[in-house]
Every structure is written in structure tokens, then in C-alpha cells.
Amino acid sequence: MAIRRLPDILVNQIAAGEVVERPASAVKELVENALDAGATHIDVILRDGGQSLISVSDDGFGMTSDELELAVERHATSKLPDDDLVRIASLGFRGEALPSIGAVSRLSLTSRKAGSDSAWKIAIEGGRKLPVEPAAHPPGTRVEVRDLFYATPARLKFLKTPRAEYGQAVDVLNRLAMAHPHVGFTLGDGTRSSVKLAAGQGELFDIRLRRLAAIMGDSFAENALRIDATREGLHLTGYAGLPTLNRGNAQMQYLFVNGRPVKDRLLQGAVRGAYQDFLSHDRHPLLALFLEVPPEAVDVNVHPAKAEVRFREAGLVRGLIVSALKHALAEAGHRASTTVSAAALGAFRNEGPGMGPQGWRSPAYAYPMPYAPAAQGGALAEALHDYHAPLPGLDAQPAARPVPVPDASPAVNLPLGVPTAQLHGTYIVAQTADGIVIVDQHAAHERLVYERMKEALARDGVKRQTLLLPEVVELEEAAVERLTARAEDLARLGLVIEAFGPGAVVVREVPVLLGQTNAAGLVRDLADDLAEWDQALTLEDRLAHVCGTMACHGSVRAGRRLNAEEMSALLRQMEATPHSGQCNHGRPTYVELKLADIERLFGRR
């Protein structure tokens, strides 16, 4: 066939295939236009998941009749005053959204310029533009998209159910709302609203946290760490959740560049790098980060839907994100998320699946008002004493081992309190100024050993102790090769091994921090870890994983009995060690229960 120029309608339909993938894509383009127009409130209505109607109304600058005619032409925009594609300061800029949407739907725009006494309307049906006509409308713009993809019916087959498409639009609107907390948003189907976000007023960090709480939940706001860092013209702000507040997927990670929601692998990799010491590979933190960069330092035109960006100095961006997150996590100290204690209280109350960690549910039965036995006297006090005395014939051994403590009254300056008992040789119970703390001794000591190993490695290397009798560990040949290939890295961490024939290694020195450890078990675990992640990680990441494995072997084991001094020392070290609120896998090391919460459990409040 001879080369020919495609008709304009077909060209617009091809462009629509890139820009308008589904109703949520149209919502994104139209809401971004409203934000660029200076809107302070945006209303979105979807029917049938956006297939039959998408309506976006705003109170922005509005347009004149001449501007309306140009707005629906391809490559017509008001956002490139100097025709410079390098310095993009707006969300939409290529002038493709409206004509592309109009090519596959019935599109109408009604707008009134701010300060004007008249409004105008223009319509496009399947790419055919109709004349501009007068209309009635308040200042601002309303865009209606009806019968999406009616002009390209094959696209309808790829749409999901109306409910699923509606959910996609909610996610798109929520992301834009996070980046613009000073703008109010609503989204509904014309009868009820599923998104209702009021415009925030006040300091940016405060209104942003309120907006994030409305979208991500109050538990995130209660356990979020403030991020505010600057480096070489880059400014990173936002909030990141504590490691103990995590999920099994990365859906609650929101990243923004110059107010634009993006899904960038560089940023996601930086987040993983910052949290690698605190979470296992299958857990993900909750966060919302907002990066402001000079327009010329980022290319936002590398993706048809502008969902991805490219940085001029990617290493600088990654370093800023990693250092800012690590600094915030270090500042948190031994703090763990409140959801840990909320979950524990929920387990005590035997809550059903529908009960969340927020708020209190009234008990299904009434408690009688308690009374204080000490306040009673005479025969009643003696009767109470007999009533509370152990029943004869019961010689059951208690699972809890009390700890002799000279003074169990905790000092105010001891956040983790004074130890009073050890349960099942695994959990330490401590009394604080306003409640109790239950500590998992193995998880807590694992974090302490890990942090000490990292500190020693950064300072002057991990101290080693020579085994009086070197230990030979038999392994598969492939495992021996993996270990001997990393022998130099392991030596930096205090573990000195050598090949001992084709199927064994000999352990000559171990880190002093590990004390009496099972060298054979440690070596076998390291060989397995190297098989899983050795090829994909940098040297620093590999060393961090090795430190974590060693710390697990060198920590206090569950089932080991501790005396009062050992328990107290463990608690004091936790208070002084960053990140001690969670182990290396993101699990909490302690649960704190306030006295008021405990009293509620027993109906005292």
C-alpha cells in the first residue's frame, strides 16, 4: 500500500489509546486540568464506573468562547508560554487530553471566565466538533464525558466491572488529593459520595497530615514520622510510617514529584533500601513522599500518561530519599507503632473481623462496679482474704516467674519500665509509669546485636575471637563456593572461614558480639541466604543481610531464663538503641499497654 496521511479522527483515536486507557485515565487528565486552572474545589461524578458519564466541575479560572474552541484542538495548550519542554511547571502541558477524549466519546465543556458575565459551551461527538454556544454556568468549568469508547467499541471489551473501574478512579483522585491538600475534592455517583475531602487551611505539614489521615487512615497519622530534608536544590517532605506499621504489598506507598503522582522504580528502590534493616523482603512500609526538584532536573515527558519520570541526577535523588528516611527512623528511637498495642487489646477483647484498631466498642455485657478490698474492714476483710486464698490440692506451677525487684515503682524517665516477671522463659513483663510493657527478649536482643555489629563495622571492624578448636561444617559444593567467594566480606564481619576440601568449610574465628553461638548453624544459614540474594545486592546490602543473620544467631534465645539484672540491662539498652522497637524483620519487639486500656478491659472505665 502507498504511504498516506491518516485522517484526523483516526489520529485522535490513536492518541486516545495512549492517554485514555480507562475511565480513571480520563478522570486523571480532567482533574489535572482543573488543578492547573487554580481550582480550590473539584467535584467528580461517575456513573457505571465512568462508562456512561464522567463529570468534572471546578471553580478555576474558566475559559472564554475563543479559548474553548482552541482547548479541544490537538496540541493546543496554555501551559507552555515559552515553548520550553524542559521547564514544565504544570501537571498537563501537551494539549492531547481533551481532543483524545472527544475522539472516543461525547464530550462537552461548559466554562465561564472569572469576572465574566456569560458562559459558553462546546461539544464534540466522536471527534466531530460542534459550534460554541451560550450557556448558563457559574465561574469555572464543567467537563462531561458521556458514552466513553462508544466510537471505539472494541475498547469496551477491555474494561472491568463498573465497581472495579470506579475503584480505580477513587485511587487516582486520592493520589491527586494527597499532593494538593489545599484543594477540596468530592467523588460520587450522583446519589452518594465515596470521597469527600475538605480544603485544608493552615501550615502545609499539618494540612497534609490531615489529608493523609483521611485517605490512609488514622493509624498512619498516629505512627507517621515527619520527613523534611534538602540537598543540592532538591527538597523532600512528607511522612513515613514506623517499620512495625507495614503491609504485605506496596499499595500504600505514594510518591510525588513536583505535585505529580508517579510510580518510579528509582524511588521505590530507595524506599526498600532505607527500610531494609527493619523489614523482611515481603513486607512494605506505608509512606507518602513529596519531592520538589527544579523543572529542568526532571523529564516528565517520558510516559504517555505522565506516570513515570526521569531524573537528570538519579543518584542524588536516591541518596536524599534513603538518608532522609534513615534519619527519621533513627530519630524515632525505640518507638513502635500504636497498632501493635491496639492489635493486642483487640486480641484480649476477642474482637471479630469487623472490629478495627480504632476506637472502643462497648462490651456485650455489663460489668458490676468493682470495689476495693482494702477499703473494707472487719469480718468482711477476713472473708475476702479466705475467698482469694489458693484452693487446697492445687499444686500447678505458674508459667510466670516473678523477678525480685527492690522497688517496682518505675521511674518516670524509664520509658520501658522496670522488669517484674518473665513469662515462659521468652517474654519480659515490665511496669511503666502508666501501664505495662511486654518484651520479646529474642527479637529485642537480635536488634541490639545487629545495631552493635553495624556500628562496629562502620567504626573499625567487628572484633573476632579465635575458636580453640576450629569447627568443620559439611556443606554442598555449591554452598562452599558461595561462602568462600565471600570470605573476605565475612571476615570484615568477624567470621573467618576457609575451604576444607570440596564439601566442607572450617570456621576459625567468630564475632565477639555473638558470644557462645552455633557456628555450624550460622554458616549453613549464611550459605542459604547467599543463594537467595547474593547476585542482586550491592556489597553494603549483602553485609547488612549477613549482619542480620549473625545477629539472629547471637541473640538471647527464647526459653532462656534471665535474672533481674539481665532483664533490666536489656530494657535500658533498648531505650538507648535506635530502631529497637522492631526486630530485623519488622516484627515488634515489645507491646505497651496503658493502664487506662487495661482498666477498660476489666470494665473499670
Features:
35% helix, elongated, 605 residues, 22% strand, alpha+beta, five-stranded mixed beta sheet, nine-stranded mixed beta sheet
Number of helices: 18
Strand content: 15-25%
Q: Given the C-alpha coordinates, what overall shape results?
A: elongated
Distance between the termini: 84 Å
User: What class would the helix/strand composition place it in?
Assistant: alpha+beta
The percent of residues in helical segments reads: 25-40%
The profile of the biggest β sheet is: 9 strands, mixed
Please give the oligomerization state of what you see: single chain
Q: Regions with pLDDT < 50 over 5+ consecutive residues?
A: 352-398, 534-540
How many strand elements?
Answer: 26
How big is the Rg?
31 Å
Overall residue-averaged pLDDT value: 78
Give your account of this protein's structure.
With 605 residues, this protein is of the alpha+beta class. The strands form six sheets. Strands 1, 2, 3, 4, 5, 6, 7, 8 and 9 form a nine-stranded mixed beta sheet that branches. Strands 10-11-16-13-14 form a five-stranded mixed beta sheet, sandwiched between helices. Helix 12 crosses helix 17 and helix 13 (477-485) packs across helix 15 (519-533).
